[in-house]
Amino acid sequence: MFAKKIFDLVLILPAVLILSPIFVFIAIAIKLDSKGSVLFKQKRVGLRGKNFHILKFRTMVMNAESQGAKVTTGGDSRITKLGHFLREYKLDELPQLINVLKGEMSLVGPRPEVPEYVEFYPKEMKKAVLSVLPGMTDRASIEFRNENNLLAGSIDPVRDYREKVLPIKLDYYMKYVKDNTLRGDAKIIGKTLMVLVKSK
Fold first, then answer.
1. pTM for the complete prediction?
2. Domain carrying residue 70
3. Counting Cβ atoms within 10 Å, is residue 90 exposed (0-12), middle (13-18) or buried (19+)?
4. Quick one: DSSP state of residue 135?
5. How many domains does the chain have?
6. pLDDT tens for residues 59-86?
7. Inter-helix orientation angle 182-197/2-33, to 10°
8. What is the C-alpha to C-alpha distance for residues 94 and 76, in angstroms, rounded to an integer?
9. Contact in structure between 38 and 103 (CB atoms under 8 Å)
10. Which of 133, 109, 145, 107 is nearest to 15 (CA)?
11. Which residues is 43 bridged to in the sheet?
């Protein structure tokens, strides 16, 4: 765990300095695009079941969670014009670097879920997945990069996510827990960057 934290810090500290102008630019663009705060905070389940607030650049209208499900589809009317762009290139995820600096997340690890969906984890899987720090990216994130679009045509996206998508994600999470190495983390980071660069 200590080596993993050092690994994260070595990569994150220079990244935050380099990306800080982009943070400012995105923040200004969000304020100009729609009413509301720059950041979106949502309760997620972290290490050993401890809740924390994940940070993202806001990509939806104000009070979006009170207007619909927590699962978002590609055609969701709550997403702002700028929000579509930020989501496409995963720029909305950048504030999670702060979560990593706070020790709530790691660069690589199982993506943290909202408490409602963690309740659907099988008991043994839940114990295993929550035994490691959640991450900004992992193999499931790469595989389901276009998850919003996959659920866009669903009649019941919440049920489809819970019954079709979540079980596959859990398999990826379990594989990560069983083979959790810094070398593996480096490969996932590299693959994530390659996928983002190749984005349209």
1. 0.88
2. 2-197
3. middle
4. E
5. 1
6. 998 877 766 666 666 678 889 999 999 9
7. 20
8. 22
9. no
10. 107
11. 53
